[in-house]
């Protein structure tokens, strides 16, 4: 299948008393919602497509991607499976956490390894009063 590679960034915030608010803009030519974050090592800005109806942020991967695959049976893999994402290699100790997801931007479904990497964001201050 000749399709661009995508990485899934899954964010887990346990015990946070406040929300993380990231500026999002809408691209009028594609109708996609985009967020800019700083990513990788060395850190550099990238634009992510935000799936407002899903748990992931999508980004295109290239040869300089510095992420680490999440192992199956890890806390992150179990949490992804609890969110409705399948771990297709759950019986393979030490194997990668394989996930199956739909990409709403190109109307397709695919399988990939769950990965983690360094992400830095600028959060907007949100008043609670």
From TrEMBL:
Residue span(s) of domain Peptidase A1: 33-129
A biological-process GO annotation: proteolysis
InterPro entries in the cross-refs: Aspartic_peptidase_A1 (IPR001461), PEPTIDASE_A1 (IPR033121), Peptidase_aspartic_dom_sf (IPR021109), TAXi_N (IPR032861)
GO molecular function: aspartic-type endopeptidase activity
Pfam families: TAXi_N (PF14543)
Keyword presence, Kinase: no
Domain of life, per lineage: Eukaryota
Span of the signal peptide: 1-19
Keyword terms, alphabetized: Signal
Family: Belongs to the peptidase A1 family.
Protein name: Uncharacterized protein LOC111009833
Organism: Momordica charantia
């Amino acid at each position: 299948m000749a399709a661009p590679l995508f990485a899934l960034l899954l964010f887990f915030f346990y015990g946070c008393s406040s929300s993380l608010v990231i500026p999002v803009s809408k691209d009028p030519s594609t109708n996609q919602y985009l967020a800019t974050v700083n990513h990788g090592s060395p850190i550099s800005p990238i634009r992510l497509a935000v799936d407002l109806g899903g748990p992931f942020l999508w980004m295109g991967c290239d040869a300089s991607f510095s992420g680490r695959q999440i192992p199956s049976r890890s806390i992150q893999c179990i949490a992804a499976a609890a969110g409705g994402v399948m771990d297709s290699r759950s019986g393979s100790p030490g194997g990668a956490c394989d996930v199956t997801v739909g990409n709403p931007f190109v109307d397709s479904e695919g399988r990939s390894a769950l990965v983690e990497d360094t992400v830095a964001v600028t959060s907007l201050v949100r008043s609670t009063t």
